[in-house]
Amino acid sequence: MPTEIKIWEVTADGSLNSIPNAQISLEEQLETWLEQDISIISSNYMVIGRQVTTDFGGVIDLLCLDSSGDIVVVELKRGKTPREVTAQALDYASWVADLSHQQITDIANDYLPENKLLEIAFQGAFGEDLPETLNEGHSVLIVAESMDSSTERIVKYLSDKGIRINVLTVQHFSSEDGKKLLARTFMIEPSEATEKANTGSKRRKSLTLERISSICEDKGLAALHDGLLTQLESVFPSKGTTASSLAFKGKLANGGARVILSLLPLESEAKQGLKFQVYTKRLAEYLGISIERVESLLPESHEKWTYWGAVNDPDIDYWIGYQGFFKTPEEVAMFAKGLSE
């Protein structure tokens, strides 16, 4: 049913005073509040754009990234009918679904203050490195001062079908002593909405280090995995897991920590060896050695490789490298020793 928020103030004598709702005169004010403090919606979001124009001629009120690197479209109702605002929000979602890593980075870097790079802002917001893959999923949040039954039916139907859409009701109150208060409520609890959407989500949960170790042991690759993990920890200060890999990271001159080398246990087999992918320019720059030297350290089984999501990136050299397989402990030792030296 439509959401109505009421607030009471507990007075000094223990009685209750109802605080009247005061309509927000300008929805632009609400948009500004959300831009200044997106935690009103979620501490898991960061704003990367305001009034973003789509290729279809529409304008997205606020564009956000969550801590997984997924896009969030935040659309204010602005007096539209339920059908209009929902249809418009879905239209925006159809546009953001195809945004590339580079397009998202460009939008964010144009918006962020003082030419702060997205990678640095993301690290500051979440304490984690910007994922190598962005926008594997996206969600829509409609923000309104009130919600009618038609909006509720439409959004609930879409959510039940696995579409990541929700409504946030934000209401403004003014107390007798002049204090301004904001109250919010979600139509669907965020945890419930996430659970529904995960059924059709393309983004998988990250592997754990324990799970990676177990996979390698089951495939007869434990010695290669353990050898690389032990020796590379002294070379790379940071490592992390994704849904398919163990990634070793290092800071580059052009800013931020970047993935340099990845091990892919799910794509490995005992006969082939332990699969790897390496960005050669990143590794050469990180260690201060030549690309030729990097190539000389690679196992015999390797081939050229380019990260698919960056084929149109102007810095394509940073996305090119090799992939292949470590087959023997000797290859692991030669590679690790060469990096350490």
As a percent range, the share of strand residues is: 25-35%
Q: Report low-confidence residues grouped into runs of 5 or more.
A: 195-201
Structural class: alpha+beta
| Strand line-up in the sheet with most strands | 3-4-5-6-7-8
Cα radius of gyration in angstroms: 25 Å
Description:
This protein has 341 residues and is of the alpha+beta class. The protein has 11 helices and 14 strands. It has helices at 27-36, 82-96, 101-111, 118-126, 149-160, 190-197, 209-218, 222-232, 280-287, 291-297, 329-340; strands at residues 7-10, 16-19, 45-53, 59-66, 71-76, 138-144, 165-174, 180-186, 238-241, 246-251, 257-269, 273-279, 302-306, 320-326. A 6-stranded mixed sheet has the order 3-4-5-6-7-8, sandwiched between helices. Helix 9 packs across helix 10. It starts with 6 loop residues before the first strand and ends with a helix. The relative contact order is 0.10.
Short description:
By secondary structure, the chain is an alpha+beta fold. Helix content is 33%, strand content 28%.
